Amino acid sequence: MTVSRVVELEGHIIDSGMMQACFGIVMDLGGAFDVEEFSVGRSKTEESYCRMTVSADSEATLRSIVHELHQHGANPTDPKDAELTPAPGDREVPEGFYSTTNHPTEIRFEGEWLAVERIEMDCAVVVHPGDDSSNDGSWAETKVLNAVEAGDLVVTGETGIRVHPPERPRERRAFGFMQGGVSAERPSESTIARIASELQEVKDEGGKVLVVTGPAVIHTGAREALAELVREGYVDMLSAGNGFAVHDIERDRYGTSLGMDTETLDHPRKGHKHHIYTISEVIRAGGIRAAVDEGLVGSGVMYECVENDVDYVLAGSIRDDGPLPDTITDAIEAQNALREQAHEADMVMMLSTLLHSVAVGNCLPSTTRVVCVDINPATVTQLLDRGSAQAVGMVTDVGTFLPTLADYVLTRS
Amino acid sequence: MTVSRVVELEGHIIDSGMMQACFGIVMDLGGAFDVEEFSVGRSKTEESYCRMTVSADSEATLRSIVHELHQHGANPTDPKDAELTPAPGDREVPEGFYSTTNHPTEIRFEGEWLAVERIEMDCAVVVHPGDDSSNDGSWAETKVLNAVEAGDLVVTGETGIRVHPPERPRERRAFGFMQGGVSAERPSESTIARIASELQEVKDEGGKVLVVTGPAVIHTGAREALAELVREGYVDMLSAGNGFAVHDIERDRYGTSLGMDTETLDHPRKGHKHHIYTISEVIRAGGIRAAVDEGLVGSGVMYECVENDVDYVLAGSIRDDGPLPDTITDAIEAQNALREQAHEADMVMMLSTLLHSVAVGNCLPSTTRVVCVDINPATVTQLLDRGSAQAVGMVTDVGTFLPTLADYVLTRS
Amino acid sequence: MTVSRVVELEGHIIDSGMMQACFGIVMDLGGAFDVEEFSVGRSKTEESYCRMTVSADSEATLRSIVHELHQHGANPTDPKDAELTPAPGDREVPEGFYSTTNHPTEIRFEGEWLAVERIEMDCAVVVHPGDDSSNDGSWAETKVLNAVEAGDLVVTGETGIRVHPPERPRERRAFGFMQGGVSAERPSESTIARIASELQEVKDEGGKVLVVTGPAVIHTGAREALAELVREGYVDMLSAGNGFAVHDIERDRYGTSLGMDTETLDHPRKGHKHHIYTISEVIRAGGIRAAVDEGLVGSGVMYECVENDVDYVLAGSIRDDGPLPDTITDAIEAQNALREQAHEADMVMMLSTLLHSVAVGNCLPSTTRVVCVDINPATVTQLLDRGSAQAVGMVTDVGTFLPTLADYVLTRS
Amino acid sequence: MTVSRVVELEGHIIDSGMMQACFGIVMDLGGAFDVEEFSVGRSKTEESYCRMTVSADSEATLRSIVHELHQHGANPTDPKDAELTPAPGDREVPEGFYSTTNHPTEIRFEGEWLAVERIEMDCAVVVHPGDDSSNDGSWAETKVLNAVEAGDLVVTGETGIRVHPPERPRERRAFGFMQGGVSAERPSESTIARIASELQEVKDEGGKVLVVTGPAVIHTGAREALAELVREGYVDMLSAGNGFAVHDIERDRYGTSLGMDTETLDHPRKGHKHHIYTISEVIRAGGIRAAVDEGLVGSGVMYECVENDVDYVLAGSIRDDGPLPDTITDAIEAQNALREQAHEADMVMMLSTLLHSVAVGNCLPSTTRVVCVDINPATVTQLLDRGSAQAVGMVTDVGTFLPTLADYVLTRS
């Protein structure tokens, strides 16, 4: 028995790799294709169009082929409305629910395509019908599994869903300029200069910048550079863990980070206790803002965040000492706080932290600009390998990266 | 002004490096020493003894020298009772509180030395006085900062505290055999054989084994080997994250891990959704145990834990999908659960997870045997760099390590 | 001024990524394209065809576009003979010489296409005309720069050259199964099983296997497994450095590798001198073969190579101790020896050595099967990033990889 | 049967770890010790002294204990002359020859101690007796195995040899300040500032600086910074490979390095051929100096070396393209050239190259100051793990390191 279905692709489907991906999917999954129409964009501004019949020897195979195809931007020619199934309970998605990609997505509801709001991968899509006589006011959004409520109309199956993977930009842009894999052997200063002008551009356009940062920023002595970027308005939101804030404040209180003086490189003995003393002091003060207000903390990244009303989220983890009163210890609550930041951000800079960067990256649509900096190439590879359209990865030392970036942004521009 | 204090060291203080460390501390911190008595163990079983006067030009310098010295096992000759200060509030330690090392520690209370229970680094020490007429029943324990309660008698200052860093074993033992830094260029099979016999020895002595594991164990196809070790009684406790359990059950339900078939190496398209489907199925079932009872899950590590009553802790994190109902989402609660496991363990095997290993490692006294396996040498270095006396680090592929270990333990022994 | 040229592509040009690459090249280099004919293969066995006019605003730009296009398989529709220029001197190539890719290449000479022999990247192509009245007996080959001789007819310019980048296999094959980047988080045993059956297949077909190996094979205790594969006929050629042979023989003579006993894990003091003693003993014997013949060496990889007439090349380097008399100390001579091995090999296994693997990889056509094993993901990435069509990379511990591979090949198959 | 021998140690034997090491050796090798005299330095400037009888149950065991002890600075109390045996042939050392450490060493010859010249590890020691009636003019030097000539008087056995491992500096110095292992999480700018002042100090004292560099310096865009340091006289000698010189000149000729424009980050198509064109151009010119003289090369590191008479050694390897006429293709000849540089250097900076750094490091005495910079922590660990007394390792990006270093040295000082 052979079953088949007609799908179509349009746009810059060749140079974006969509055609290649789709042909590969069909072959890998054991199906066959028969191209019925193919008109290629004759120039770089013209779009191409392809319509083909995909066939397989079982309905199950065909369904998984079509599922994959449409995740890569090929859509059935005979659109039907998406299938909606009420969630059976809180945090319970119906069987066969559609799990999102991080690409812009539309849902067909009562004959019209609704753009899904707050797009993010591995979520359910919930449709909120509008007024009953029309679908004016109907809208759709993503929900993570634990946010689904009983009765939510969840999209199930494969029909009535359109996904728009990012196309290759027609012109070369600053972002996305790192082609060909992650490597430490790239021009460092020139890349930083590029990131600096991109950062400037985002700010000039009124965009919001989210910095996701790990404690290595403090240990490597880049704290002052980051504090300066916060103070000068280049950072709108900050995501970090308890340890980042602790070492940042430890540096203010004791001149050390993880017990090492980041200027003299001395290891004052007893220094390894400084972070614990710091935590107990901030706890006694009642939190970071209170510690700043009391004059207990007078410099650093957290200080500048407080002074400049930069929204910060400190997400707790099981390896935390303390933690500080500001640290959100519940993982779901913390993830939701990160999610809000991620959805507001126009540009995200991930600095030497795998855990927080993965957490934030999970919430990002593929259209957000991402800069990822780490000294471990495997970390950069893992973070960039999430289908972001506009991403720059840099294998470098954050301890020299941030001072150089601050220099380009604040002095040389 | 010169101030001074007399300290003494005893034991195998030369070959354990204690003398060297202590002389170095005095010099580094700008003090001077005057050795008054030094009797060296004339043979490898005899202990040595050193008494010296340490001097510095300020009381503050002297205090920090003495603080460091006693953390390395040098103790004042004129012991006084430890100073105790009531905690001013819940989660508030008094100023100047003593922050622990991970070495066995004693506190002098009413003229007698109390061994501190549940030793763990970066904690406060709380003394519980016994009956008021004697100190019968007096005892001392560590408390992490967030567990301190108002009124707890917390040790402050430097007096009346004795620390016992681990000595170099007199005979060569299996553990601690990896000298000279972490390297991938070590004999792999022979090292695994050694770990296998150590594991066997711990079990033969009735000891408890805690496995701390990351999802790489599943992705690399080592799941069956670990499941077998659980089934055969070599694992008493398991610490992992939400992702580990998800991928373990995904493998059972869909044959994949992170979407890849770990046997055929196929990437069934749609496979990248399997983990989300898995999560929603376990949520619907009400948890892992319920899913096993329902017959939804019939193999794997989590299955064997349920079937063999192996205590497991799944600690949540901000990057989790779902999470599963079993996952403890509050970091403090999760850390306390790990702490219980850590204090019960006689041997800890850390398998390809940095976050959970650091969390567990933080709770371990320096006397617990630790095996740490990761493919990233920096991870192994970081985990072993915590002063454990009996530790083996191995830079290897957990996907071949576990099958080989299981083979040695279950077949070849 | 606009200049233009017509090029055509044929084959599985979509799913192999050729179309995508070519469109990208034109856009990146500032040209424009106008697709004149495009017939897409209607099914997975049908080939596609595309003819397009490429235009640019200068002859120089157009030339570099066309140069790039044809390196990706797009060829001018109006083939002319290649331009040939005599080399002005020994080791001197004429200006504008054509530098090869590692893909199968043809040169148009007197109206006919000659397949270039001994294809290898970054070489000149030298045409040897046959009999003067016809081009019977004409042939073409690659020459590295230092092998070019005065008067050699070297291909210059861009015309008359056809390159055939590898196409995506129509069916899934064992090789090339690692898609999506290099990662340690892949199923280890299943991958090794796949490599084992591939190795078996090559041998069954009478193919030749070249093992390129570093000293880590000895240090990690995998020596016996590799020796067994040599003895059982699975290795036809071996490439290594002086250090590999030294440590292999050190193990035989002293039971150690780099001074560590690879079985007991002891570090016999004085062990760090064993390699120097080993070298001096082999020098005294007159070489490895002589040492085997004398009975000085009775086991190990080099021993099995000698006993089983496996061709080995020991290439010298500046970090060598000794070196052994067998080591080729001149880099050009050593490279030529490797080149012979590379061109004869049907399958190459690169085991934990970057230097030798790069050297051999430089000499390989893109059609040779390659297996690359290293514990450092950056090494695997670098080695696979050379355009091989049939390559498997594995981030694992060679000390467990080789015993497991030998087990699959010799026992389980 | 018990055999024994008396040895003594003197100096700062406790805080340098010598006592600890020696006690450990005796225990590890199954011997026993009996301390007869031990006087400990009563203050940090006083030296200590220890005399002990070491015993073992066989002469062989005792010998290997004593061998190890004296490599760690413990010397027999009853010094005898060293045993000298003539080398039986060229490149043939006599059996039982003494193989050197990299520490300062003395040989007892005719009752007097001769300092061994050109100390370097894994060498033979050859004594050149002076005038026959006295030993005026007698001297000793190291020879690598392949430099030994028939008849050379080679030191054999264990007697009459004194080794002086480096002691812990009495005061804290810039160098050697990185204690506690290699880590990327160290203060980057402060460490660079320290290295800058150390470099300045060496130059102020008239010392010689050897830079050992890999091509990553060019790829990461740090070429101009290094060229400037050469031009300003901070580099006296340069060691590199063929590839470094090729990419440095490629940047001059084509604006690219490995085909990427290090300023604009463009990948001019055809760029991947630039290095081959560069090589052929330099070959045509007859070498680098000729290319500079002809005006073919007008900037960069090699250009500055030529213009400023900085001695450079380009050591060939099997992965070289070309090579350039300047490249020494014979490994022994190249190693000897490196050896001359190494022995002349007062400070060595190893920049992002493992092969050349190991080669140079092999030739260095333990007293030379070493700075090692690499982005891979395993490389830094491996390079520092060679017993250098005065070494700084830094895990950072050489592309930001060198500009920052040049800034500190040339501008901020």
From TrEMBL, chains A, B, C, D:
<feature type="domain" description="Arginine dihydrolase ArgZ/ArgE-like C-terminal second subdomain">
    <location>
        <begin position="194"/>
        <end position="405"/>
    </location>
</feature>
<dbReference type="InterPro" id="IPR048964">
    <property type="entry name" value="ArgZ/ArgE-like_C_1st"/>
</dbReference>
<comment type="function">
    <text>Catalyzes the conversion of ornithine to proline, with the release of ammonia.</text>
</comment>
<comment type="similarity">
    <text>Belongs to the AgrE/ArgZ ornithine cyclodeaminase family.</text>
</comment>
<dbReference type="InterPro" id="IPR007545">
    <property type="entry name" value="LOR/SDH_bifunc_enz_cons_dom"/>
</dbReference>
<dbReference type="InterPro" id="IPR005239">
    <property type="entry name" value="ArgZ/ArgE-like"/>
</dbReference>
<dbReference type="GO" id="GO:0000166">
    <property type="term" value="F:nucleotide binding"/>
</dbReference>
<dbReference type="Pfam" id="PF21571">
    <property type="entry name" value="ArgZ-like_C_1st"/>
</dbReference>
<keyword id="KW-0547">Nucleotide-binding</keyword>
<keyword id="KW-0456">Lyase</keyword>
<dbReference type="GO" id="GO:0008473">
    <property type="term" value="F:ornithine cyclodeaminase activity"/>
</dbReference>
<feature type="domain" description="LOR/SDH bifunctional enzyme conserved">
    <location>
        <begin position="5"/>
        <end position="103"/>
    </location>
</feature>
<feature type="domain" description="Arginine dihydrolase ArgZ/ArgE-like C-terminal first subdomain">
    <location>
        <begin position="104"/>
        <end position="192"/>
    </location>
</feature>
<dbReference type="InterPro" id="IPR048963">
    <property type="entry name" value="ArgZ/ArgE-like_C_2nd"/>
</dbReference>
<protein>
    <recommendedName>
        <fullName>Ornithine cyclodeaminase</fullName>
        <ecNumber>4.3.1.12</ecNumber>
    </recommendedName>
</protein>
<dbReference type="Pfam" id="PF21570">
    <property type="entry name" value="ArgZ-like_C_2nd"/>
</dbReference>
<dbReference type="Pfam" id="PF04455">
    <property type="entry name" value="Saccharop_dh_N"/>
</dbReference>
<keyword id="KW-0520">NAD</keyword>
